[in-house]
């Protein structure tokens, strides 16, 4: 028997085999696929220079998982301390009937706490930390947004010497 016929390499067999191979490969890819983190697109675009919207200090939006950390970092640049921080720098940047936002530069961990009158969230601009929320540990880094529900114990442990973040309270 001809070797070409064993492997189905005749011209009229190739398109059907190609379709079958593509179908099998697609199924294998779906089986092995891993869901990307929700804010991956924003992080990749920010890293390659698409900084997104330009933020105005007098009209800051709430932070969310869709926020662009490089846009925030650029907007916060004039507010960052000129001298090295000894333990913690905190500067309020927004206060209204719904939100309080602060720029935080810290070298210290935050012990466990519980908030009763506002929901807290962190939006990391530089550095890495681990937040334990109700016993579950979340490692977050630049570009990550982490909401913390009301009445839930949580703490923050730095994984880098310093973390720069937007601390946001949503008032209830």
TrEMBL record:
> SUPFAM superfamilies, per this entry?
RmlC-like cupins (SSF51182)
Concerning Gene3D superfamilies, the annotation shows: Jelly Rolls
What superkingdom does the record give? Answer: Bacteria
Locate the transmembrane regions by residue number.
none
- Cupin type-2 domain mapped to chain residues: 110-161
* Protein's UniProt name: Cupin domain-containing protein
| Species of provenance | Mucilaginibacter psychrotolerans
